Structure formats: C-alpha cells, structure tokens
Amino acid sequence: MSRVTVTVTVSFLAFFISLVAVSGDVIRLPSQASKFFRKAENDDGDDSPAGNKWAVLVAGSSGYWNYRHQADVCHAYQLLRKGGVKEDNIVVFMYDDIAKNKENPRPGIIINSPNGDDVYNGVPKDYTGKDVNVGNLFAVILGNKTALKGGSAKVVNSGPNDHIFIYYSDHGGPGVLGMPTSPYLYANDLNDVLKKKHASGTYKSLVFYLEACESGSIFEGLLPEDLNIYATTASNAEESSWGTYCPGDDPSLPSEYETCLGDLYSVSWMEDSDKHNLQTESLHQQYELVKKRTAGSDSSYGSHVMEFGDVGLSKEKLVLYMGTNPDNENVTFVDENSLKLPLRVTNQRDADLVHFWDKYQKAPEGSARKAEAQKQVLEAMSHRLHVDNSVQLIGELLFGILEGPSVRAFESHCGSLSQYGIKHMRSIANICNAGIKMEQMEEAAMQACPTIPAGSWSSLHRGFSA
C-alpha cells in the first residue's frame, strides 16, 4: 500500500470515528460495534463534556406495612444501574427495615411485583435508620458534605453540565411529605433547596418524580418555571395516591405476602422504563403513559398524575437521567400503554390496614400471630378515630365549624399525627391562616385531648412532625 493511500485511509478512519463519537444517530452500526463506538456518549466519567448523571432515591417511611416504598426505591436503583448510571452517582435513602424483617416471607429479598426479581441485592446503604432525615437529604442534594450527620457521606457532587434525577416514594399530605424520622419534609423547604441548587449553578437540568398522597401540593404554585426543573407527581394537590400489587388486588400476590409490593405511579414509570429504549422515549411520552395507567380504568380508583416546573424539559429523552438498558436498544416505542391496567388497587393510607387484616385472616385460630394482628388492626383504627375526632373537635372549639391548630401544639396534647394524620395538614394550615394564636390552639388541644392514647401510633418518641 502506498504512503498516500495509508494517509488517506487513516484520515478517513479518524473522520469516521469522530462522526460516531459526536452523535450515535449519525451512523448506526451493528449492535456490538455500535456499543463500542457509543461508549463516550454514555460514559459518566468526571471529565465528560456531555455531563454526568446523578440520582437521589428516597423511601420516606419505615415499618413492614410500608414495604412498597423501599421496594420502589430498590427497583429504581436497579433500573438506573442497568442503564449505566454509576453507583457512586446514586444516593439511596431507605430505613432498611424490610428485607430482614421477621414478617418478610423471603428473608433478604425484596420484590416490587408479584413475579418480580429481587431488587434489594446490591443496593448501597448510604443513609439508613435515623440517618434518613430531612437535614441529610437537603445536604445531599446541595452537595454539602459538612452538613451531613451520619451516613456514607455520599452527596450529589454535580457540575454545570450534569443531569440530576430525584425520586421520592412515601406518604404525604397537603404541603408535606413523610420521613421515618422527624421532622417531616415540607413543601416550602424542599422548593427552597431546589432554588438554592439552581443558584449554585451545579446542574444543567433536574427531573423530580414524586410518589405520595396530595403530592401535587408540593410543587403547585411553589416550583418556578425557570429553574430547569421538571417534576411529575402521582396525584394532584387534593387526592390520594395508590398502592398496587396488594393483598386482594388483581393481579394477585404470591400467597405468602401480606403487604403491598409497590405503588401504582411508581411501578408504572419503572415498568415502562424497564421495557423501552430510553434513548428514544421522552419524559413527556413516559408521563402520558404513566398518567393513563395511574388514572385507572374507571372512577373506582386512580389519581391524576401532574407535571410542574419547566414542562419544556419533558421533550428530552429519558436516557439523560436514567441511562438505558442495552438489552432494550432495538425496542421501538409505541404511543400506547401496553402495560396491563390493574383491576383493583389500594388507597395509600389504607395499606397498613390491608396488611394487618390480611395477616389476621391468614393466621391460625388461637395463635399468638392472630392475636398480634387483631391488636394491630384495633390500634390502627383507634388511632385514626382519635386523630380525626381530635382535629374536628379542635376546629369546633375554635370556630364552631372551621378547622384547626399548629402541629406542635396539637401533637403535644393529642399525640403524633403519623403517616395517616398528615392528611389533616390543610386543616391545620387553615387554622393558622385564620389568625388563631398559639395560646388559643394550646387551650383547644388540651380540651380536645385530655390524654394522649397509649398506643404506638400516637407516640412522639421520634419527635414532632414539624
């Protein structure tokens, strides 16, 4: 081969490789070769000019009856890892009391669907137990290691070209999200942190998926459109979200399970992501599919999936935030929801009762397990009645028919709101907005609740909600 021919050949090869490196869409090669040449495009190295992917995954609950929240988060972790997101760039918050719980029929294993694989294996223990708290969460998002208290010290150390994905799954109420350790996570505080993150110039775009009752209230009227943040929520500001794969639901669970395995909004976006090529599917396309599946087939169940913030970001491809499973690279996206709609689901706030009741029904007659389950059902119902009646009575004492108090004043005299009682946050806000003074609230709470019930649901051993 002549010198001229060699020079031309080398130049052409360099030009060819540069085309592929710049954009995987310019030239498509057979699968094995294309994976090699597209490596730079999907590489999450610190020096990537296209930006790195970061993720924060949060399960905001504890207790076996809340199995589904940690199952959701573990599933999300596996999805991101299969998509190529680096483990060092994924921060996981979960109480970690499910996998090895005595109630778990498959010790050390967590599943997120009836026939699902183990999603717990390999999930990092970044922030567990008491380290799952609001302070650490905010420090992680802001990349502020000095503000951390406990945990792995892993934070979102993002740069101006990076893309951040935040996913939260738990209970919620108007303007508030649950956490396993007090205080709860409040909408104003969360949005303030997101504004600070934007002001720091340490991301290009951020996507927030939120699973909780009244989750629309967390962003509605609070999340500006100019922060390069796109958020979707499982429900609007006034309705519950839904658990799925629960006892008595269709599809049915393995017989040994007595708790919900997932949440409807959460499994909808994850099961969609599991099967599609996220290089071609956009955030908006997924939003539409999830909205359809979460709304349900009739009016008997379902919630309205919402979107907030910079909705224009939804035209971007999911691969920017979640990566994509190489096994799905030949899957063609179709504009319809091929995932089966459930015929029955469970209100998030009733999932604990479903667990206790299923446990009671399956336990042998006369057994200690049956007695324990009966006690759990009665205590949970008693707590609900106490919270509902106390809030109503305080409202009547203050206004006659309006509602009422400061959270601390209420809990000091009436006990913890708990994951069920945070649905009354709007009532408490209404009382504050009506100009009721703390002294009036204290007096009304003392009259409404002369004693705090002894049950575990009313305990304040983990602190106040606010």
TrEMBL record:
Residues 406-449 form the Legumain prodomain domain. Keywords: Hydrolase, Protease, Signal, Thiol protease. The active site is at H171, C213. Residues 1-24 form the signal peptide. Gene3D superfamilies: 1.10.132.130, 3.40.50.1460. InterPro entries: AE, Legum_prodom, Legumain_prodom_sf, Peptidase_C13. GO terms for molecular function: cysteine-type endopeptidase activity. It comes from the Eukaryota. GO terms for cellular component: vacuole. One of its GO terms (biological process) is vacuolar protein processing. CDD domains: legumain_C (cd21115). Belongs to the peptidase C13 family. This is Legumain prodomain domain-containing protein.
